[in-house]
Here is the input.
Amino acid sequence: MQKKCRKVAVFACSGIGKSLGTVAREIGYELTERVRPHDTLLTCLALLVINDPETQKLITENPVIVIDGCSLDCARKSLEANGAPLVKAYQSIDFFKKHKDLKPEGVAELNDAGKKLAALAADELAGVVDELLRGGDDGQANESRNHILQR
Here is the structure.
């Protein structure tokens, strides 16, 4: 029997200088601050780079949602390299492809379309958070670019 997780850790791309990286970060903020504030915890990839013990514990004892800004998947690869056992990975471009009318622009500050795109993506990821907290996978995240890594 799988124990119920207390939080879902959320890591977002830090793709500085790219609109889709900014969208990824905004999705992380929306998911952890508005959509599921009591069930999620947003943390940064830099803590993995410096081998922060609390972050290591967080990713090995809890499920993780990672949101990358591009196909390089830097955030996902960082989590894999640090031994995260359960990662549901997304790319912000995939949410944009579903909502092509919401073209994100801006780097330091997203335009209204980019903010709305991030909000819609966070709303969609709410179901993934719920399923992870129940200890299962409802298949909702099995889209073409999603990587589900279970070790």
About this structure: The beta strands are 8-12, 40-43, 64-68, 86-91, 147-150. The chain has six helices and five strands. Confidence is low (pLDDT under 50) at residues 138-151. The first strand starts at residue 8 and ends at 12.
